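Priority: medium. Attachment 1 of 2:
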């Protein structure tokens, strides 16, 4: 065979081998690749499944909307100052709460005492229609109709002053006839012994706490509890914070025994240094709750 023919044959064989299909077979296991991390969805749709928290994990608190307000009291207790024997006497009323406390207080003051208070000698000198026109810098402005008797006029103003200055926004009252005045301008209209609690008509339990102010000899204040028949059930004494020419406050608890509830009286007085008698007596009619022996 000539060289040229041989070369042509070899070229033909190589061409056929290059066009042949690749042989099949296993190349071993495919390499393992970690699955990509998919971020958790920020919100679950209707068909999404949300994993439950592990057992013992507290549920998240439900956020509150709006501002939580402070509940206002449903009632308001007012201190009212009436007149007895030309002197000021305090009592109390409990009424539905209102923001117009000064207006309510003057309306109650003008309405006058209850039947039980009237039986104990309390009266009011304040006419209907008295109102506070403004309160500024601790001064309440009140206009009252003129009255001929100067004693009545001053007692009436003192009723208003003592009643309105129970509120923290009022220190003095301006009646438009003189400089604004506070309680200090009317202390001479207080009796030697004032009982601020209990007040007429209260129901009390044992021990009953008796409190108020007094200007008495050596500041000594004595209290006794009387039953419906006027029999003495208990007595106690205390010392005011000031006395013999100055007014001080006092407070004392008196324990009594009583088999059944009944009307009674709390008496507060000074013991005379001359003969030991009861003087400057203030009697407060109350209801005494039954009290067992302790």
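Attachment 2 of 2:
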């Amino acid at each position: 065979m000539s060289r040229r023919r041989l070369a042509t044959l070899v070229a033909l064989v190589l061409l056929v081998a290059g066009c042949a299909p690749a042989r099949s077979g296993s190349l071993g296991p495919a390499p393992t690749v970690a699955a990509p991390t998919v971020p958790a969805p920020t919100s679950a749709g209707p068909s999404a499944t949300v994993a439950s928290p592990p057992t013992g994990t507290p549920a998240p608190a439900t956020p509150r909307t709006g501002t939580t307000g402070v509940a206002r009291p449903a009632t308001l207790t007012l201190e009212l100052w009436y007149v007895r024997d030309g002197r000021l006497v305090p009592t109390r009323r409990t009424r539905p709460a209102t923001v117009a406390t000064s207006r309510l207080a003057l309306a109650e003051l003008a309405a006058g005492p209850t039947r039980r208070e009237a039986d104990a000698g309390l009266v009011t000198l304040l006419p209907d229609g008295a109102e506070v026109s403004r309160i500024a810098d601790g001064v309440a402005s009140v206009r009252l109709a003129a009255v001929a008797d100067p004693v009545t006029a001053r007692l009436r103003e003192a009723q208003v002053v003592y009643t309105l200055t129970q509120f923290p926004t009022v220190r003095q009252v301006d009646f438009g006839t003189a400089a604004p005045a506070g309680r200090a301008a009317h202390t001479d209209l207080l009796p030697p012994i004032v009982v601020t609690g209990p007040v007429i008509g209260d129901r009390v339990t044992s021990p009953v706490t008796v409190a108020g102010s007094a200007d008495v000899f050596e500041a000594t204040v004595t209290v006794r509890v009387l039953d419906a028949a006027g029999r003495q059930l208990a007595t106690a004494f205390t010392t005011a914070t000031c006395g013999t020419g100055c007014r001080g406050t006092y407070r004392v608890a008196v324990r009594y025994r009583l088999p059944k509830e009944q009307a009674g009286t709390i008496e507060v007085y000074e013991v005379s240094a001359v003969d030991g008698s009861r003087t400057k007596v203030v009697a407060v009619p109350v209801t005494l709750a039954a009290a067992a022996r302790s």
